[in-house]
Each structure stands twice: as structure tokens, then as C-alpha cells.
Specification:
Chain lengths: ~325, ~290
């Protein structure tokens, strides 16, 4: 593998090991979800209802091969999942992959811009703490971040929607057009969900990036740079470069959450995304759709975090010691 | 900040911080309200028809009435029970599981650590709300199922912190010495780990409580919380549909106490965390 700072350190060997470990985690996640679903949910009851006759339920279970051993059913599900055959949603009456694919677009349409906006705003406001950490502005920012972090997202989304969409009328009440329209119409619908997502995320990001920047600034070599008379802008460039690995790790850790979006935002703004699909699946006990969403998000987490770990270690050699 | 300057910071006792007292008072009030509601000592008439539907707040009904004429103030008081009890139970479950798993992994290491770390990675691979919603959907809506669902994802954060702290403690000279003298893992956790981890648990409990109450509110909003009693999340869900008609009290009645309790837990956790960080950077106390 090579010493941490040796030129023989090979990122690709690290990446292969992480990918294999991630694949193993994914298999275990899927098997766990499949077993829990098989044990706790009866698809025959889901289709025919809890008041159906026992004979009808038994017949439907036989048709669905539920009388086979649990291990055989789980193995079959695993094999089918590997070929993206994730079953049919009993609510939407379509293949689960179709439901997931159609929900991905609306979710990412507001989640990605909101995430980018919050990340940039959080890092930028945190960077202002480096020059003047003990001013009133800093105290106000800290209080705002703590308050946003402490507030329930439910309350924030509902009140922001009521204030800006219903009472002031600055934004459309719906986060997604009811009928397909022009791209500009779609952007107008998405603006408030994007801003709400950014507001929900900013508090946590600000506090995290502030801690990262301050911890990095305490390294003694920055004091030596200042003592040598380097301009503040150059010191800041070095500092940001030193934080790059940790910041990338933080961003990567949050990326998989974009896939499912915010169930509260999608419910309040009526966005037909994956979060909305999860709500519908949970209320209707749609095991196939719940499993599909869980597996998709787990796969995204494993893939994104593996790539992010490799990138973070390439950016910051100090992380290779861990 | 200069490293030497950081070492001369004087730690502020948590009990001298005003935010601690205010936050503690709010949480105590919520807990007492939940307890009194559980034993029907207050708000026992929350389900009774008290007046006309959608009546505005007045002297008789301080927070007005809802769609079927029930007193919103009584329902708000009664809704404290599922919100606070589910959140509290979830936080304590997560703390218990995460602390034991983290301490065991940190002090024992080896296979135990690898297994618990793998379990934590598997749980962390799926977005938390998916796990919570999935488990509650599988187990059925209820106070205990909600608490179990929330605890099933929260224990990972507790585990990581306790494991890191336990690994640091396990490398200390006095722990290594006790291990060399034949002390078992459990003996070391009980006699060396517990006194040092105890201050950390208070902070984690406050932070986990804030998260758990927020998660329970979302479950109630989505209709996945307990169905046989009102909850703040469900009140917000039903009240938000009437906001465009100007019926603000239905939403504010639940949003205000929910925000107050969650903020109190968050500020309490922050105050405890700041005190601990201050103690860590204080100069060592030398014996006279």
C-alpha cells in the first residue's frame, strides 16, 4: 500500500478494496431489508386486505410462492435485484424501477440546487469567522445556526410555505407544475423548495465548516506564515487547501441524502419525487417500493462514499494515516 | 487562536450558563405535562366537543377550537405525551445501545469492534428517515414502534462518539496497567470507562432528544405516529391545510411547543458541549 507520504501510495488499490467492501455492505443491507420485509409484511394481506378470507389469502400466498422457505425467497430476491428486477409496486401498479426513475427527476430538481446553495453559503459564512471570530456578527451567525438547527423542519417548511407562497404570493404554492409546461414555469415552481432546503441545511453546514476551518487555523504553520509576513489572502488559500479533504468528505457524506430528498418538502409542496413515493409506500405497506427505495439509497451511499473517500485521501495526504 | 491562548481558557461551569436553566425549565415543563396527560390528570376532556368548529381564540378557549369543535389548548397539552415520550424513549434506547456497543468496541477492539462497526455501516448506508419510516410502516404506527424506529438509526451516532472516546481512554496508562493486571473488558468499562464517559452521556442525551422529537413530529405529520391520541406533528398536518383560510391557531398551537421543546434540548446540548470543550482546553490542575 505504501507509506502515507510515499510516492508509492496507490489510490486505485484503496479504491478497489473500498468498492469490494461497499459491495459486501450492499448485499448485507439488501438481505437484511428482504428478511425484515418477508417476516413483517404479508403481500397477500396487502393485496386482498386484512378482512379477506383465510382460503383466499392462502391461495394468493401460494400464487406468490410465499410457501417456499425464507432462505430461497431471499436468495431469489437478491438475484432479481442484481438485474434490477425489483418487483411491482402494489400502489402504482408499475415496476418499482419505473416508479423510482420517474420520481428521481423531481427530487433532484430541487434537492441538488438547494444542497449546492446551502453548502456554498455555509462555507462562505463560516470562512468569515476566521478573520473575526468574536464579533457581534459572528455571535449572530452562531445564534442563527443554532436556532435553525434546533427548529423542527416540519414547522419551518409549513410556516415558510404559508408566509411566502400563500400570504405574500411571492412564489407558487405548488412545487411542481400540475401539467408539463415550459422550463421557466418549472423553475418558478421549484424556487421556494430550493430555498427551503437550503435554509434547513445551512445551520448544520455553517457549524461544521466553522469547526473545520477553526481547527485547521490552529495548526502552528499558519502562525509561522503570518509571522513571516505572508498576506492574509495567501494564508487563506493555504488554509482552504488544507481543509479540502475534510470538506470533500463532509459533502460526500451528505450527497446520498439528496436521492430521497425531503419527505416534508415533497408533502407540503406536492412534489412527485422519491420522498413522496416513500410516504405513499409506507402508508400502503408497499414492501416492494420501500425495499427499492432503501436499496437504491444504500447503493448510492456506498458508491458515492467510496468515490469520496478516494478523492478526499488524494486531496489530503494526512487522511491516508487513518 | 494561539495554542497557548487556547490552553488558558477558563472553563465555565454549565450551571452558570443562563441557557442551561431556561432550557432545563422548558424540558421539565414538557415532561411534567406529558406525565400528567398520561395519567389523565390534565386535558382529560381533549376529545370532547367544546364549542363551534374553527372558533377563534377567546377567553373560554385560549387557542380556539378545531374542525370538529374540540378545544385546541387541551389537545396541545395532551399531545405532549406522544411527542415527548416517543422522543425520550427513542433517545434513551439509542443512548443505551450506542453506549454499550461503542464502549465494548472501544475497549475490546478486534473482532468485536469489526462486527459492531460493520453493523453501524450497514445501518448508516440507508438514509435515516427511510429506515424510520420503513420500520414504523412494518411494525405499525404506535408510540413504541416509533421510538424503536428512531432509535434504530440514532444509535449509530452515539456509537461512533463513544467508540472514539473509549479508544482514547483504552490507550491511557491507567487502563493499560489494569489490563496488564488481568482486568476483563467489562471491569475496565465499568471502573475506568464509565466515570469518564458519564459527562458525555448528558450532552448526547440532550442532542439525541432534540433529534428524536423532531423525527416523531415528522412521523406524526405523515400519519405514521400513534393514532389513538393527538400529537403535535398530526396537529400541524391537519392545521396546515387550513392556513390559507386564515385559521392560524390550529398550526401555531402545535408548532410553538414543538419548537420550544426542540430548541431547549438543542441549546441544553450545546451548553453542555461548550462546557466540556472548555474543560478540555483548561490548564491541568496540579496538586498543591
Amino acid at each position: 500500500m505504501g507509506d502515507a507520504f510515499s510516492p508509492t501510495w496507490r489510490p486505485w488499490r484503496f479504491a478497489i478494496r473500498r468498492v469490494l467492501a461497499g459491495a459486501l455492505v450492499l448485499v448485507v443491507v439488501f438481505v437484511t431489508i428482504a428478511i425484515v420485509g418477508e417476516v413483517l409484511i404479508d403481500p397477500a394481506v396487502g393485496e386482498l386486505g386484512p378482512l379477506a378470507e383465510m382460503a383466499a389469502l392462502d391461495e394468493r400466498r401460494r400464487q406468490l410462492d410465499l410457501d417456499r422457505p425464507l432462505r430461497a425467497r431471499v436468495v431469489d430476491q437478491l438475484a432479481a435485484a442484481a438485474t434490477f428486477e425489483w418487483g411491482t409496486s402494489i400502489v402504482h401498479r408499475r415496476p418499482v424501477t419505473d416508479v423510482l426513475w420517474s420520481g428521481l427527476g423531481p427530487t433532484l430538481a430541487y434537492a441538488v440546487p438547494g444542497f449546492c446553495l446551502a453548502t456554498v453559503a455555509g462555507a462562505a459564512t463560516a470562512a468569515t469567522q476566521l478573520d473575526a471570530p468574536a464579533t457581534r456578527r459572528a455571535a449572530a451567525l452562531n445564534l442563527a445556526a443554532a436556532t435553525l438547527l434546533g427548529m423542527s423542519s416540519l414547522v419551518l417548511v409549513v410556516l415558510v410555505h404559508d408566509l411566502f407562497a400563500t400570504r405574500l404570493g411571492w412564489f407558487p404554492a405548488l412545487g411542481w407544475p400540475l401539467t408539463p409546461g415550459s422550463h421557466l414555469v418549472g423553475l418558478g415552481h421549484l424556487l421556494l423548495p430550493i430555498l427551503v432546503w437550503a435554509l434547513l441545511q445551512w445551520g448544520a453546514d455553517y457549524r461544521m465548516y466553522r469547526a473545520i476551518f477553526i481547527a485547521e487555523a490552529r495548526q502552528p504553520h499558519y502562525m509561522y506564515m503570518a509571522a513571516r509576513g505572508l498576506p492574509r489572502s495567501r494564508i487563506r488559500r493555504h488554509l482552504l487547501r488544507g481543509c479540502a479533504g475534510t470538506v470533500v468528505a463532509r459533502v460526500v457524506q451528505r450527497l446520498p441524502h439528496l436521492l430521497v430528498g425531503s419527505v416534508v418538502i415533497e408533502d407540503v409542496f406536492n412534489v412527485p419525487g422519491l420522498g413522496d413515493a416513500v410516504i405513499v409506500a409506507a402508508r400502503a405497506n408497499d414492501r416492494a417500493l420501500l425495499q427499492g427505495v432503501a436499496v437504491l439509497s444504500a447503493a448510492a451511499t456506498v458508491v458515492v462514499q467510496t468515490g469520496g473517500d478516494v478523492l478526499a485521501r488524494w486531496l489530503d495526504p494526512r487522511l491516508r494515516l487513518e | 487562536m494561539h495554542p497557548e491562548a487556547a490552553a488558558t481558557r477558563i472553563p465555565l461551569s454549565p450551571w452558570r450558563r443562563p441557557t442551561m436553566w431556561i432550557a432545563g425549565a422548558v424540558l421539565l415543563l414538557a415532561l411534567v405535562t406529558a406525565g400528567l396527560g398520561h395519567w389523565d390528570l390534565i386535558a382529560s376532556a381533549h376529545a370532547d366537543l367544546a364549542g363551534p368548529s374553527f372558533a377563534a381564540p377567546d377567553r373560554v378557549h385560549p387557542l380556539g377550537t378545531d374542525a370538529v369543535g374540540r378545544d385546541v389548548w387541551l389537545r396541545t397539552l395532551r399531545a405532549a405525551e406522544p411527542s415527548v415520550c416517543t422522543g425520550g424513549l427513542a433517545a434513551m434506547l439509542a443512548l443505551a445501545v450506542g453506549t454499550w456497543a461503542g464502549a465494548w468496541a472501544g475497549f475490546a477492539g478486534g473482532t468485536v469492534e469489526r462486527i459492531t462497526l460493520a453493523l453501524a455501516q450497514i445501518v448508516a448506508a440507508v438514509p435515516p428517515l427511510i429506515v424510520i419510516i420503513g420500520l414504523v410502516a412494518l411494525l405499525g404506527p404506535g408510540l413504541v414502534s416509533g421510538a424503536c424506529g428512531i432509535a434504530a438509526v440514532q444509535w449509530v451516532a452515539v456509537y461512533r462518539v463513544i467508540r472514539a472516546e473509549s479508544q482514547r481512554l483504552a490507550a491511557e496508562g491507567f487502563v493499560v496497567a489494569s489490563e496488564a493486571m488481568g482486568a476483563s473488558v467489562w471491569w475496565r468499562i465499568r471502573h475506568h470507562g464509565a466515570p469518564h464517559l458519564r459527562p458525555l452521556l448528558g450532552t448526547m442525551l440532550a442532542i439525541q432528544l432534540a433529534y428524536a422529537i423532531k423525527a416523531e413530529a415528522v412521523l406524526g405529520f405523515l400519519g405514521l405516529a400513534t393514532v389513538d391520541m393527538p400529537s403535535w406533528g398530526r396537529m400541524i398536518a391537519s392545521g396546515s391545510t387550513h392556513l390559507p383560510r386564515g385559521l392560524w391557531w390550529l398550526t401555531v398551537a402545535a408548532a410553538a411547543p414543538l419548537t420550544a421543546v426542540v430548541l431547549a434540548a438543542q441549546f441544553l446540548g450545546d451548553a453542555l458541549q461548550s462546557s466540556r470543550d472548555g474543560e478540555r482546553t483548561a490548564p491541568p490542575r496540579h496538586p498543591r
